[in-house]
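Inputs:
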Amino acid sequence: MTHRKKTKDDFLAMDAADPLACERQKYSLPEGTTYFVGNSLGAMPKASRERILQAVEQEWAHGLVESWNNADWINLPERIGSKIATLIGASGHEVVVADSTSVNLAKLIVAALQLKPGRKTIITESSSFPTDLYIMQGIANQLSSGVEIKTLDRDEIKHAVDENTALLVLSHVDYRTGELLDMDEYSNIAHDAGALILWDLCHSAGVIDVELNKYNADFAVGCGYKYLNGGPGAPAFIYVADRWIATINQPLTGWMGHQSPFEFSQKHKPADNIKKMLTGTPPVLAASCLEGAVDTLLEADIQLVRQKSMQLGQLMIELMQQFDCESFGFELVSPQIAVQRGSQVCYQHEYGYAIIKALIAKGFLADYRNPGVLRFGFAPVYQRYIDVWNLVSVLVDIMERESWKVFKDIKQQAVT
Ligand SMILES: *Cc1c(COP(=O)(O)O)cnc(C)c1O
């Protein structure tokens, strides 16, 4: 197959023909910055700003405590949850917004163990995001009933799930390599052995047309501040498949998960719907911000978002080859094939951290993960094709001029 070399004009033409191009103006993006870190903190939707101002100035300052009813603060978790549901292939009544991903993982893992009495093993991947591993370790340490966490390589999982397995916990997208796991395949592996499956959607919600119902997912969690653009520390979401809502019991039985919190009864009686997964009072301001972001995202067709995300990644890989970036020492650590990737492309380089710092100095924000991984996340609602052309051009320039060397001995900051 012969490929014509791509030019800058090709990228401008793709932007001109992009059905999602109109979405970009809905986000606040600083001049002179090109952003590839939507996988860590999404850019700010203008509607989030409006929404939080309304929440502060109207609902709080003016409406005061009355806003729990008048602005329907009390139903924010369900209301936003049902909007997120449409992005992840779930029904509106299966998703609620609450707490952080870490806390929601803890609730679901303990609940899943109780749903599978007699089964003592939880299986996960060694490449899981650390908080997922830490939460599982904490739970195993806390429960005296001999729960064992098996942390395995991906290719070992298939053979390890058995009649002792209560739960399989997997990230839909590998945060380090961008590899996308096949939901159908792993769902079947878990269910064929009578186990449950919990998906961490932190790197897929808002950018991939996730199909939780179609692939029989039992549980899922995900965060609000990555591709959902809900703002720093935005609340997370929790999904429980309809078939489990009646029977699931979560351990953090706070009053917001009570059937009628304002009865102030002494005994906890869980709500008979997804609200039973709630614990305490919802973070109204942060949730309002998230609502503005999700409303904005819902204006874009998630299938188109996924298609553009795959294209952006493919173009980056193609340009890196076109400019022979392997000769500079870059090694692709993400899958070559677009359908096997989430919305990021990652390269490994011995001086990865210094190169990221050189890119940031030029106004190209990307991030770094040990060991030596440069991550480029694509948020198709505000990313342009030309951004990819410019990124690779600047990267080539940095390598040719060796301008990254200024940053070679710089100490890693607290947040990379
Ligand atoms: C970002 C991320 C988290 C973050 O969890 P928090 O509780 O929000 O800190 C968890 N899991 C994965 C896979 C992530 O990518």
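The two ends are 39 Å apart (CA to CA). Flag for discussion at group meeting.
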